[in-house]
């Protein structure tokens, strides 16, 4: 198995099992680019301004066929205070223990929505805090006024 930095990789040639139920599952088809209609995007941004959500758009390029997923234990971590903002929602990626297949040469795009960061935060990390190797980590993301970010994983 090839190793992918910062992402949970898995060999696709083996059967895929839900670790909670023990039953074999079929991975979902790869989901195309994220495209939000204007009305939905406007509603999300209005809610984000009111409640202070942080949106992180992620892209992952597969050098070879692999599977990806996100764990609920994914956080934004304020580098100054260490305060963790939990992930509230993940769009276009499966939540562990399920896997999403990403064919060789394609890019998976997904969006993560987090609780607000502290007002004083200037730099933060994106941390998938998991009980196995392969969790992703993006260090030193510079805070911006919109709290919308784009990162490449792997």
What does this structure look like?
The chain starts with 37 loop residues before the first helix and ends with a strand. It has 154 residues and is mainly beta. The chain has a seven-stranded mixed sheet with strand order 8-7-3-4-6-1-9, with no helix packed on it. It has a two-stranded antiparallel sheet with strand order 2-5. It has one domain (38-153). A hairpin with a 5-residue loop joins strand 3 (74-78) and strand 4 (84-91). It has one helix and nine strands. The protein has one helix at 38-51; strands spanning 54-61, 66-68, 74-78, 84-91, 100-102, 107-114, 123-128, 137-142, 148-153. It is 9% helix and 34% strand. The model is unreliable at 1-15 (pLDDT under 50). The protein is globular.
What is the averaged pLDDT score?
A: 82
* Estimated structural class: mainly beta
> What's the shape?
globular
Q: Enumerate the strands of the largest sheet in spatial order, edge to edge or round the barrel.
A: 8-7-3-4-6-1-9
How many structural domains are formed by the residues?
Answer: 1
Helix content: under 10%
Report the total helices. Answer: 1
Catalogue the unreliable spans. 1-15
* Percentage of β-strand residues: 25-35%
Helix-strand pattern, N to C?
HEEEEEEEEE
- Main sheet attributes: strand count, strand direction, barrel closure: 7 strands, mixed
- Taking the alpha carbons of the first and last residues, their distance comes to 15 Å
Radius of gyration: 16 Å
Q: What's the β-strand tally? A: 9
């Amino acid at each position: 198995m090839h190793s992918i930095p910062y992402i949970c990789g898995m060999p696709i040639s083996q059967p895929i099992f839900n670790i909670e139920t023990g039953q074999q599952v079929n991975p979902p088809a790869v989901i195309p680019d994220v495209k939000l209609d204007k009305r939905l995007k406007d509603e999300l941004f209005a809610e984000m301004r009111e409640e202070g959500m942080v949106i992180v758009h992620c892209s992952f390029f597969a050098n070879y066929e692999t599977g990806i997923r996100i764990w609920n234990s994914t956080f934004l971590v304020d580098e100054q205070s260490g305060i963790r903002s939990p992930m509230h929602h993940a769009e276009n990626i499966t939540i562990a223990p399920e896997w999403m297949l990403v064919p060789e040469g394609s890019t998976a795009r997904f969006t993560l929505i987090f609780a607000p960061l502290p007002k004083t935060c200037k730099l933060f990390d994106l941390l998938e805090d998991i009980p196995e190797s392969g969790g992703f980590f993006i260090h030193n993301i510079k805070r911006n006024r919109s709290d919308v970010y784009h990162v490449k994983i792997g």
